[in-house]
Amino acid sequence: MNVMSYRFASYVLGGALLIACGEDGIMRPPENGEFFDSSHSAARNWNETLLSAIRRDLARPPVHARNLFHSSAMMYDLWAVYDDQADTWLLGRSVGDFSCAFSDTQRNALRSETRDANSDRSIAISYAMQRLITHRFETSRARGYVRERASQLLAEMGYDGDFSSRDFSEGPSEERAAALGLYLADCIIELGLQDGANESNDYANEIYQPANVPLQPEQPGTPGMDDPNRWQPLELQVSIDQSGNRVANQPAFIGAEWGQVIAFALPPDAFTNFERDGATWPVCHDPGPPALLRAAGDGEAMPEEYQWNHSVPLYWAAHLDPDDGTMWDISPRSVGNSEELPAGVADLRDFYDALDGGARDRGHAENPATGEPYEINEVPRGDYTRVLAEFWADGPDSETPPGHWFAIVNEAVSDHPSVQKRYRGTGPELDDLEWDVKVYLALGGAVHDAAIAAWGAKGYYDYVRPISAIRFMASLGQSSDDTLPSYHAEGLPLVDNYVELVTDTDELAGPDNEHVGKIKVRTWRGPDFVGDPDADYAGVGWILAEQWWPYQRPSFVTPPFAGYVSGHSTFSRAAAEVLTEFTGDAYFPGGMGEFVAPQNNFLVFERGPSVNVVLQWATYRDASDQTSLSRIWGGIHPPVDDIPGRRMGIIVGQDAFERADTLFAGTP
Questions:
Q1: Which one of 226, 450, 512, 578 has the fewest CB atoms closer than 10 angstroms to its CB?
Q2: 3-state percent helix, strand, coil for the chain, nearest multiple of 5
Q3: How does the average pLDDT of the chain come out, rounded?
Q4: Higher pLDDT, 290 or 243
Q5: Looking at the DSSP assignment, which residues form a beta bridge with residue 629?
Q6: Nearest to 550 by CA among 471, 477, 476, 626
Q7: Collapsed DSSP state (helix, strand, coil) of residue 20
Q8: 668/661 Cα distance (integer angstroms)
Q9: Are 49 and 35 in contact (CB under 8 A)?
């Protein structure tokens, strides 16, 4: 075979995979292709391919958290098998009731035969990822794109797409590595068919049924809503999910039974099994019931807390006007370094600024990387809040919240020019491949376990979303004064300049005064006021509360699953805990992470922002906290969904990192 200098060339001769090396016998990557970046590790290239596939698939956060974890664990195992110390997660181990056979003798043989461990690792990772991604997206509407991209990446890396052997006991080390990759991918696929996710039935729920009839948001109120504590599905004229995909007009609850999926590091004794509707619902790190309008099951009625919590997104929606003249400093000197999280539902009022927005942040005195104070970053509040809501919503073209944190790791951490790739901030610098597979394992395990914990709570508590709660209370009346019209103990509280009664002199009274006595709110006016998203923005004004709309597209409105607890809060805090531990630094490299939303070229469903908005975070936890607040401004979550999710994320993230750390050290 002719040797090709400094680039891979692959051939099939008699069914054998042959890979050409450089003149000195050392294999080197080819030049950059459309999908292959030779400056990145194989793990990074394949993670980017997976994120690209997720962006084109249905927006299913728990499903894609699982995809990110399984791929990360697989890549890590294929790195660890060639290491003297590290232990594997699945290869040669049992997870649940599934075992992936692999002996110490086989491991030693692979290690002794390899000429270049990182080259063989890259080969194994590439074949494994091509196999797993193609399988996981084989029924996706993006399957053609995914198959083509994965195949092209494999080819651009110089590997033969027709190689199919699973026999890693014979042949050159390159062939053994490729076969091992395919073998482990088969194990991951088999595990995935029995891990409780119901993958073989496209992750459908088997027992869950909604308690309320669907809400048609184009119609006022919530007619037919029987239980104001429980989630209400939507029935839309056109339904487009968070990734921009056209879906069923009545989207089903995604992942209602996800609490039963096999975890990475969730301890068995952290689960509580609850009974509801004749079924068992496992909940990990049970947060206890949310604020209920009416007593239900084990939950006590907390009507005043329910009313306050679901009014906060209503109040914050009044902050979504860039023309209101309010300017905010959104730099780390003012935003971030949040105070201690509140302990219970009754303490939430002291943590959030219900009317003016935000939480009790202390800010940071200086950038520890430069020793200088953070510069003021002042923008219109209405631009900041809208950018925040859309940036952290991860849509459209969404890699979903767990994937968003992988993108942050790749672009804001690993690619930062000042980053030193030292595990926990100490010791020797890791090469790119070792850094990537290790951070992906810890982060993937964290977001996967966060999905199991958060969706376990979502499935069991089945809690209402703000659009349903606000409209339901508004349809009853006001709860503040029994001497005023439309009093009802379960109605919306009146707040001057935010929530008031319609009078006969009000422009909302209607031609026959049919709306007199109803509740009006000063809030984001909704999609009916946006004719052309490239030219118009709704602004803030008075509307009937029964027609309130979260700051979302009319084809999306609110996610197709229950609110409590916030998945964004759980995913993000778990990720922040992992990155803090993994990098050995609470701060982003250089002391600050940034994202630029360009003027009038970022918002999706209305014009804006009116100026360039630079989101900034000093620490990973600051970014996580900003994620949580964004969901309140977006009208998706009340505070009661947020804090339990953050608390859950702290525990989940720390446990996932500790589990990963024991695997790295070979002491599971």
A1: 512
A2: 40, 10, 50
A3: 93
A4: 290
A5: none
A6: 471
A7: coil
A8: 9
A9: yes
* Confidence at residue 237, expressed as pLDDT on a 0 to 100 scale: 86
Which pLDDT value is given to residue 394? 65
| Among 553, 580, 537, residue whose Cα is nearest residue 634 | 553
Size of the chain in residues: 668
Give 229-241 pLDDT, tens digit per residue.
999 999 988 877 7
Residue with tokens 């339901």: 472
Instruction: Tell me the C-alpha distance between 375 and 133, whole Å.
Output: 43
CB 83 within 8 A of CB 430: no
| CA dist., res. 421 & res. 438, Å (int) | 11
As given in the structure block, the two tokens for residue 366 are 């200086």
Retrieve residue 422's tokens. 């030292």
- Give yes or no for residue 334 having a pLDDT over 80: yes
Task: For residues 207 and 412, give the distance between their C-alpha atoms in angstroms, rounded to a whole number.
Answer: 41
The pLDDT-based confidence of 20 (bands split at 50, 70, 90) is: very low
d(CA 435, CA 440): 8
Is the confidence at residue 27, as pLDDT, over 80? no
Domains and their CATH numbers in the chain: 27-200 (1.20.144.10), 218-332+379-668 (1.10.606)
**How many angstroms separate the CA atoms of 56 and 243, rounded?**
7
Inter-residue contact 621 to 576 (CB < 8 Å)? yes
How confident is the model at residue 298, as a pLDDT? Answer: 78
Backbone angles phi, psi at 403, to 5 degrees: -70, -30
Residues 251-286 have pLDDT tens digits of 999 999 999 999 999 999 999 999 998 999 999 999
Which pLDDT belongs to residue 286?
Answer: 98
Please check whether residue 280 is in contact with residue 274, taking contact to mean a CB–CB distance below 8 angstroms: yes
Residue 132 has pLDDT above 80, yes or no: yes
Residue 418, phi then psi, degrees to nearest 5: -95, -5
Asked if 159 contacts 10 with a C-beta cutoff of 8 angstroms, the reply is yes
Sign of CA dihedral 556, 560, 562, 563: negative
Say how many CA atoms lie within 13 Å of 521 toward its Cβ.
Answer: 29
**Residue 539: exposure state from Cβ atoms within 10 A (0-12, 13-18, ≥19):** middle
pLDDT at 242: 64
Which two tokens mark 523?
């809030």
The predicted-structure confidence for 68-99, as pLDDT tens digits, reads as follows: 999 999 999 999 999 999 999 999 999 999 99
Distance (Å, whole) CA 14 – CA 52: 35
Task: Report CA dihedral (303, 305, 309, 315) to the nearest 10 degrees.
Answer: 90
Burial class of 31 by CB neighbour count within 10 A (0 to 12, 13 to 18, 19+): exposed
The closest of 555, 636, 543, 470 to 234, measured between CA atoms, is 555
Sign of CA dihedral 153, 155, 156, 159: positive
Residue closest to 562 by CA, chosen among 646, 454, 403, 647 = 454
Q: What are phi and psi of 593, to 5 degrees?
A: -100, 150
**From the centroid of its chain, how far is CA 270?**
22
Distance separating alpha carbons of residues 438 and 450, to the nearest angstrom: 18
**Would you state the pLDDT for residue 668?**
72
- The mean pLDDT value for 647-652 works out to 98
Contact call for residues 643 and 341 (beta carbons, < 8 A): yes
Read off the pTM. Answer: 0.94
Inter-residue contact 555 to 239 (CB < 8 Å)? yes
